[in-house]
Every structure is written in structure tokens, then in C-alpha cells.
Write a structure and sequence with these properties.
With 284 residues, the chain is of the alpha/beta class. It has one domain: 3-Layer(aba) Sandwich (Rossmann fold), CATH 3.40.50.720. 55% of the residues lie in helices and 12% in strands. The chain has helices spanning 15-27, 38-45, 62-76, 101-129, 149-168, 187-201, 205-226, 232-244, 258-267, 270-280, and strands at residues 6-9, 30-35, 53-56, 83-86, 132-136, 176-181, 251-254. It has a seven-stranded parallel sheet, sandwiched between helices. Strand 4, helix 4 (101-129) and strand 5 form a beta-alpha-beta unit. The termini are far apart.
């Protein structure tokens, strides 16, 4: 049924995941697309070939992960899984002094623990096919900014886990890559702004007094930066290369501001970097 093998991608309802699912389907892969709602699966199917199979999955639900793995492995039989794209994730913003701990736990549960839970479930099938793993990280996994500490922590963790996993899986020739986008034109941008407004409305008066002007400045700067967002198909092409190239890269930096941020992370002393970031965000 598939010219290039079978892949599973999480978080395929919208944005990067949806674009990657459709792109890989057009290339001839059989795509198992993780979605949260049946209506999302139907919408995806309407734009894809008969090869694409929606799979109900909440990566914070162990039972759903196990069921998805059983169903897909049973469908594949001896073929094995050619690729796993860990894309699902959320963004939790806010000042660390006042961030609700349950929100912090949810950020780490979905963006860190969920990625490993899915990977563990599919590794036997990946080993069978000598498949590849692509983890969707972010430039926020290389450099952190004010009010994005929780999200950056989750992506920093994913970077570390991916590096370890890549070395651990060398004996079976299972290559593991990271894709590190900057701003991408997806619904997560508008969702993040809406979530930030909702979070701000729930802040105690003390938090608004202490951080209100800085939070507004960062929000304005983020809106300006998001205007430079790249289309999601740029990310899809990086994923394609990671899955198909004879020598895939360990990291794919994607987006207009990726190189700038990575240069900051690698080259500047901490205090210089802090000063440049805060000035860029209008905080000085």
C-alpha cells in the first residue's frame, strides 16, 4: 500500500503535523496520523490519499498510546514502522513566579513524557524496519526568553533526550533527528496569544503590578516576530529529508530567526545574551 514505507506522526490535526502528514502522503508513504477528534481525522482524509489512516491519540493518555501502537503494529505485520514523527505539543507561557504548578506539570507531561511514551511504544516496530525518529523541537529548546520558561524547559529536555536516544539506538541503525523551527505559520501562534490573554486575566493583582508592563512588551515583540513566520511546508521538507536522506542530519534549523537564536546560544556569554534578548523584547 505504500511506496516508501509507513510512518506515524502525532499531533496531525492542524499546523506542522497536518502539513507533514499530507506532504508525506503525497510522497508515497502510508501515513498513520495521530488526531484528537474524529472530525479532524475526517478533514485530513478528505485531502489525502486512501493510504492515510487517522489514529485517535492523546499523548498524555497511556491507554490511548498503547491502543494506537497495538492497532498500527497489527496493521503493519512484519513490515515494521519506517518513521516516527513526534510532533504533538502545547505551549504554556507565563512568569515563573506565578505559573500554576499544574500548568507546568501539563507542559512537561505532554512535551516531554508524552514524547518518550510514544517512542517506547513504537520502538520494537521501528527496530524491525530500521526506521527513523524525528522529534519536532524548537529554537526555544536552545535559548530561553522571559515568560517562555516552561515551554523552553520542555524543549530543552526534548533536545537532551533526543541526543541520548540517538546514541542509544546506534546499534540498530535507527537514526534520530531534531527539527528546530522558529516561528511557523500555524494556528498555535494565535492559540498561544489567546492562552496568554486568558492566563493574564487570571493573574493575581500582585503579578499584574510586578510584571504587567514587561509582559505586554514581550507580547508586542512576539507579535512582530511572528509576522516573519515561515510556512509549515518548510518544516515538512526538513522532516522529509530526515526520513529519506542517505545521511540525515542530527539537527534541522528551520525559520528566519533560527540561525540568529542559535548563534546567541552558542557564542555569547550568558549576560551578553540576556541583555541582547531583553533589549530585543523591549524590556530595556
Amino acid at each position: 500500500m505504500a511506496e516508501k514505507g509507513s510512518v506515524f506522526i502525532t499531533g496531525a490535526s492542524t499546523g506542522i503535523g497536518e502539513t507533514c502528514a499530507l506532504h508525506l502522503d503525497k510522497l508515497g508513504f502510508r501515513v498513520f496520523a495521530g488526531i484528537r477528534k474524529a472530525v479532524d481525522g475526517a478533514a485530513l482524509r478528505s485531502r489525502a490519499s486512501e493510504r492515510l489512516v487517522p489514529v485517535r491519540l492523546d499523548i498524555s493518555d497511556e491507554a490511548e498510546i498503547s491502543q494506537a501502537a497495538r492497532d498500527i503494529v497489527e496493521t503493519l505485520g512484519s513490515e515494521g514502522l519506517a518513521g516516527l514523527i513526534n510532533n504533538a505539543g502545547i505551549v504554556v507561557g507565563g512568569m515563573l513566579e506565578f505559573i500554576p504548578l499544574d500548568s507546568l506539570r501539563m507542559q512537561l507531561e505532554i512535551n516531554v513524557v508524552g514524547q518518550i511514551a510514544v517512542t517506547q511504544a513504537f520502538l520494537p516496530s521501528l527496530r524491525k524496519a530500521r526506521g527513523r525518529i524525528v522529534n519536532i523541537s524548537s529554537v526555544s529548546g536552545l535559548i530561553s526568553s522571559p515568560f517562555t520558561g516552561a515551554y523552553s524547559a520542555s524543549k530543552f529536555a526534548l533536545e537532551a533526550l533526543t541526543d541520548s536516544l540517538r546514541m542509544e539506538l546506534q546499534p540498530w541503525n535507527i537514526h534520530v533527528s531534531l527539527v528546530e523551527p522558529g516561528f511557523v505559520q500555524t494556528p498555535i501562534i494565535s492559540k498561544s496569544f489567546a492562552a496568554a490573554q486568558e492566563m493574564r486575566a487570571e493573574l493575581p493583582a500582585e503579578a499584574v503590578q510586578l510584571y504587567g508592563p514587561a509582559f505586554s512588551a514581550v507580547e508586542d515583540a512576539t507579535r512582530r516576530e511572528s509576522a516573519k513566520a515561515v510556512p509549515p511546508d518548510v518544516v515538512a521538507k526538513a522532516v522529509e529529508h530526515a526520513l529519506t536522506a542517505r545521511r540525515p542530519r542530527t539537527r534541522y534549523m528551520v525559520g528566519a530567526n533560527s540561525g540568529f537564536q542559535i548563534s546567541l546560544a552558542r557564542l555569547l556569554p550568558d549576560r551578553w545574551r540576556d541583555s541582547l534578548i531583553t533589549r530585543r523584547l523591549g524590556l530595556k
